[in-house]
Specification:
This protein starts with 5 loop residues before the first helix and ends with a helix. It is built from three helices and no strands. By secondary structure, it is an all-alpha fold. It has helices at 6-13, 20-33, 37-59. 10% of the residues are buried.
C-alpha cells in the first residue's frame, strides 16, 4: 500500500467537489420546493443565499 498523490485523490473524489454551503443550498431549495408556495419561496431564498456564500467561499479560499 502507498499514499495517493493529489491527482489520484481528485480522480477518486470525482474532481472538484462542492463545499458544504453549495450542497446545503441545493438541498434547502429542493426541500422548499417540495412544499407549498410559501415554503418554496423560503427555500429558494435561503438555498440561493447559501449557494452564493458557497460560491464566494470557493473563490476566496
Amino acid at each position: 500500500m502507498r499514499e495517493l498523490n493529489v491527482c489520484e485523490v481528485e480522480e477518486v473524489n470525482g474532481g472538484v467537489s462542492m463545499n458544504n454551503w453549495t450542497s446545503g443550498g441545493i438541498a434547502a431549495a429542493a426541500i422548499g420546493l417540495g412544499g407549498t408556495v410559501a415554503t418554496g419561496g423560503f427555500g429558494l431564498l435561503i438555498g440561493g443565499a447559501m449557494m452564493v456564500v458557497g460560491y464566494y467561499y470557493d473563490q476566496y479560499q
